[in-house]
Write a structure and sequence with these properties.
This protein is an alpha/beta fold. It contains 13 helices and 13 strands. The longest helix is centred in the N-terminal third of the chain and has 20 residues. It is elongated and about 65 Å long.
Length: about 325
């Protein structure tokens, strides 16, 4: 009996020692070496700026992960409900991360999941997008972070004044369905008024009334300002078809919009913020970074750019420190 009890005790000690020698379960911060990540990209609409951001994201994430990542890109055709459907499908597919390109896509993705990390890009103001008074660079209450395309609005206002110091009335043309556009309008209006301009706002609700609203704007204003606005960018040709024959110049919020209807812009490189968003995605997927504590990243460089064709048509001289849009 004593020998039997001794054997039991010895076995118990052996199992205890074996248990102590085992390593702790692997955390999500250290995925298996053969892990292939699935990433869903929801882009609001096709236009040059958003296309460049998506391309930068896909290029960089593929460079970082090689064949360890599958990226599915879906386009919402400018419709937030369509973005919601796309985001819900990504959630059903149990993707590892969602990249949402433009504010309506971001809102749709955040509304579809509170567990899957969501990174936004081409987002002008996250606080405005989520109606949060104080974002403070991050929001621990949301599974959201990303990159911003916000350019210095004070410098854009100064650019307009440098080009058109004799203008009396400046119209701001934007889509009232885009929270980021409203934020920019509210910010730049007093800046333009500070230069002595009378500022009028002209709102359209979607692409169907862009031409009509633009017609009203050029009939009342000496110059127009269009902020970073996805609907306007996708309708740049329609805007130009009204503004250019009327001889009313436009300062644009970003280069893609400027290439379609603007005279000049102070713009970021959207490909670059796509690349930065991919680096953030890598940090989340591979290093286990917590998306809710990641600071929003901003473009490090802003470039003065001009539309050579429109400037020539309108007879506008451009300073030497501006770069022609290719």
């Amino acid at each position: 009996m004593k020998k039997f009890m001794a054997l039991i005790l010895a076995l118990a000690m052996l199992f205890a020692l074996a248990a102590c020698g085992q390593s702790a379960p692997a955390s999500s911060a250290a995925p298996a070496a053969d892990k292939v990540f699935n990433v869903g990209v929801c882009q609001l609409v096709q236009h040059p700026a958003l296309d460049a951001a998506t391309q930068g994201f896909c290029d960089k994430l593929t460079e970082l992960l090689g064949d360890k990542v599958n990226i599915t890109v879906q386009n919402g055709a400018g419709d937030q409900p369509s973005c919601a459907v796309i985001a819900s499908q990504f959630v059903s597919d149990e993707v590892d991360l969602i990249m949402a390109n433009a504010t309506p896509a971001l809102i749709a993705a955040a509304g579809a999941t509170n567990t899957i990390p969501v990174l936004g890009t081409s987002i002008t103001a996250y606080a405005a997008a989520f109606e949060i008074d104080e974002w403070e660079g991050r929001s621990v209450a949301l599974n959201v972070s990303g990159t911003s395309d916000l350019a210095p609005l004070d410098e854009q206002a100064a650019m307009l004044h440098d080009f058109f110091p004799d203008a009396k009335t400046v119209g701001i043309l934007y889509c009232n369905a885009e929270a980021n556009s409203r934020f920019q309008v509210e910010t730049i209006t007093p800046l333009l008024e500070g230069f002595g301009y009378t500022v009028k706002t002209f709102e359209f609700s979607d692409s169907n009334d862009v031409a009509a609203v633009t017609t009203s704007a050029v009939g009342e204003c000496d110059a127009l300002y269009i902020p970073t606005d996805n609907t306007a960018a996708s309708c740049a040709e329609a805007i130009n078809n009204v503004a250019l024959p009327a001889g009313v110049p436009i300062i644009a919020g970003e280069s893609g919009l400027c290439s379609g209807c603007g005279v000049a812009t102070l713009s970021i490189d959207y490909y670059d913020i796509g690349v930065k968003t991919a680096e953030m995605a890598f940090d989340i997927l591979v290093n286990g970074a917590d998306v809710s504590t990641m600071e929003i990243a901003y473009a490090p460089v802003f470039t003065k750019m001009f539309n050579a064709d429109i400037c020539k048509t309108l007879g506008i001289e451009v300073p030497d420190d501006f770069t022609a849009i290719g």
